Amino acid sequence: MKRLAAILAALVLLPLTAPPAGAQPNIYHTIYNSHGSANLDQTNGCERVEIFLSSSVAAFASQPGPVNKQGLTGVFVRVSDACAGIAAAAAPGGSVLFQADGQNFAPLVTDPRLESASIATELAGTDGDGNPVTIRVAASWTGVGPLEHSTVNTHDHFPDVGNVSATDNNLRRAAVATLHVEAGPYSISGTDSNAVLERVKSRCVEVARPGVEEFFPCFGFPG
To answer: Is the confidence at residue 165, as pLDDT, over 90?
Structure first.
């Protein structure tokens, strides 16, 4: 999906080794990060509609530091002529009738056990020619599968730089999503029976060796 930002979810236990004398660990918490995703791909006659939707809400904090809460919702819509397959193969993109994408900071509304979720928002986006377009989205998720639980622990040592340790506590539930999207001249509704709801709690601890700067492995920059 175009321009859908990946949501920060790095996190941490204790370092593999004791911090060097005087080293001050950086500790980052994802207090929670709830995410819903849904895809729609349906064809009516020659008209094929594709929608990719992602919505989340999360709370982050460093230690010490304030708690920051943030939502993020993004959508990509494409309408194409399914009967123009030969022409599209000869000239990629030739069958696309309309496309648009956008994102904003609207938060997903969900419960801690991922039994349901919803989002209703209006996004300022752009169409396939770069022109501004308003995209209206209303979607709801209903959990239908068992609540799956998993944990992930990582411990890495970077010679001459430092150590990082992280842990993720993950929940996941299969869901059915109902979508309604309005963009340009199109008003589209549909259901994704293979949607997903997820929730992550995590912590990341990084300990740099004395004198080392720019060591931020929790954010993908090991120095």
So the answer is: yes
Residues 59 and 32: beta-carbon distance below 8 Å: yes
Alpha-carbon gap, residue 203 to 106, rounded angstroms: 24
By three-state DSSP, how is residue 37 classified? strand
The span from the first CA to the last CA of the chain, in angstroms, equals 30
Q: Which amino acid is at 76?
A: F
- Could you tell me if 98 and 81 are in contact, meaning their C-beta atoms sit under 8 angstroms apart? no
Whether the full predicted model's pTM is greater than 0.90, yes or no, is: no
Q: Under 8 Å CB-to-CB from 200, ≥6 apart: which residues? A: 9, 30, 32, 33, 35, 168, 169, 170, 171
Query: Looking at residue 161, what is its pLDDT?
Result: 92
Distances, alpha carbon 129 to alpha carbons 5, 182, 194, 207, in Å: 21, 18, 31, 47
> Cα–Cα distance between 126 and 122 in angstroms, integer?
13
Task: Determine contact, residues 115/128, Cβ cutoff 8 Å.
Answer: no
How many whole angstroms separate alpha carbon 10 and alpha carbon 137? 29
Spatial separation of the C-alpha atoms in residues 76 and 74, rounded to whole Å: 7
The tens digit of pLDDT for each residue in 195-205 reads: 999 999 999 99
Q: How many Cα atoms are found within 13 Å in the side-chain-facing hemisphere of 120? A: 1
What is the C-alpha separation between 186 and 45, in angstroms, rounded?
15
Q: Is 2 helix (H, G, I), strand (E, B) or coil?
A: coil
pLDDT in the model for residue 162: 94
